[in-house]
Specification:
This protein is about 45% helix and about 20% strand. It contains four helices and four strands. The chain has a four-stranded mixed β-sheet, covered by helices on one side.
Length: about 150
């Protein structure tokens, strides 16, 4: 189990050190801001939606390793998904991170590589770090242009 935990930690640290899809998406059709005022994490999420699919996705922001890695890995997972698939992935991630730990089994296959965040549930203070980008995604998909706060 220690080797698996080390692998998960390595993946999160890699995405923190070298975030993927970081920067403003110039031709974004959807945008939202996320903020965790308790710790100072902030994220701006940019989406380009074409024909009901996420054709482009990027983020900007500052935050802890969990927050940055979550946003980075989220952008990789969302690219090319339909809006329905993106909403389903959001639900699966939020359930994995915040659902009842007594009822939780293994992370659903739907989350794929994002299962590396399953261990965050054991640290309640860090759950908001992992979910901030995902709540920002929901705000961006809704087109509300509002700030998602944790």
């Amino acid at each position: 189990m220690s080797e698996l935990r080390d692998l998960y930690q390595d993946v999160i640290l890699d995405h923190n050190r070298r975030p993927r899809n970081r920067g403003r998406l110039a031709d974004a059709t959807h945008h939202a801001e996320g903020d965790n005022p308790l710790c100072g994490d902030q994220v701006s999420l940019y989406l380009r939606i074409e024909d009901g699919r996420i054709a482009g996705v990027s983020f900007e922001g500052v935050g802890c390793a969990i927050s940055t890695a979550s946003a980075s890995m989220m952008t990789e997972a969302l690219s090319g998904l339909t809006l329905e698939q993106a909403h389903a992935l959001y639900g699966a991630m939020i359930d994995m991170l915040t659902g009842d730990p007594l009822l939780a089994g293994s992370p659903s296959a739907e989350v794929g590589k994002l299962a590396v965040f399953a261990g965050v549930r054991e640290y309640p203070a860090r759950v908001k770090c992992a979910t901030m980008a995902w709540h920002t995604l929901e705000a961006a998909l809704a087109g509300r242009g509002e700030k998602a706060t944790e």
